Amino acid sequence: MTSTPRPVRKAVFPVAGLGTRFLPATKAIPKEMLPVVDKPVIQYAVEEAREAGIEQFIFVTGRGKHVISDHFDHAYELESQLEGSGKLKALAGLLESLPPNGSVSFTRQQRPLGLGHAVWCARHFVSDEPFAVILPDDLMVGTPGALSQMIKAYNEVGGGIIVAVEEKPREETRRYGVVDPGKWHGNTVEVKGIVEKPAPENAPSTLCVIGRYILPPSIFAQLERMERGAGNEIQLTDGMAKLLGHEPFHAVKTECARYDCGDKVGFLHANIALGLQRPDIAPALRKILASLPK
Ligand code: G1P
To answer: Whose CA is nearest to atom 9 of ligand 1?
Structure first.
C-alpha cells in the first residue's frame, strides 16, 4: 500500500513566450488569447486545472501579457450591459469562467531563459508543496481532463513526479522531452530516464512528454542551479532528470486528444475538431468542410 501523497492544489501556467510562430496575429495580443472556437487557449488550460481540483492559478507572464489578467477578472461594463440587455446566458458563461477571488497570481519571467527558468520564477508562489505545470499550447480534450487523470495516477503511485506522455513517430523526438520507460501498470509507466529533444537515433523511446507535469517542490533546488541544456536553455526536463532516484517518477498516457496549439496546423485542427463537437456549430461546419475542394 502506498500512502496518500500531499494534495496538488496549485498550478503554474508558463505564458511568457512571444508566440512568433503566429505573427502577425500575436503582435499585439498574446498567443494564449487566440481563440479555439470561441474560447481563448488559456481558458481551456484553466478549466482543466479547475476540474482537477486546483485552487491556486499561477501565471508566469512577460511583457504584453496583461490581457491575460484582464481575462480572468470581472469586466463590469460588459457584465452590466449583458444583464441590462437580458443576455443572461452569455453573462452566466462569463461569470462561470472566473476563478474564485484571490486564487489567481501573476509573476514575470524577465528573461527568456527556458521552461525550467519560467517554472523556477513561480517558486515563491508555489512554496513547499507539490504542484502542477500546464503548458497551454498543448490543448488536451477528454473527460475526465488530462490533469485529473494524472492526479489519479499520482495518488495511486504515492506521489512524486508525473508527466503526461504520448507515442510519437521517431522522427519527431527532437521536438519533445522523451522518457526511458520501465514497467507499465495500466496506463502508467515507471520512468527510468528522461532527455530533452534527443535526435531520433539517440531517443530512449518514442514516448514523448506533452505539456502536463506534477512536480515536487524539490524541483526548485535543481532549477536554481541554472544549468543550460538543449538549445542553451534552462530545461525543466533536466531538473526532473536530476530527481531520478530521489523521487518516484512516472509517466501517464492520458485518454485525451491533444492539439498542439503552438503550431498553425495543430491550432486549425483544434478549431475544426472542437467546432465539430459543438451542436450549435457542427452542422454548418460539417457542410463547409464537405464543400471544400479536395
Ligand atoms: C516543452 C518541453 C518538452 C515537452 C514539450 C511539450 O518543449 O521542454 O520537454 O515535450 O514542451 O509540448 P517546447 O515545446 O516548449 O519546446
So the answer is: 177
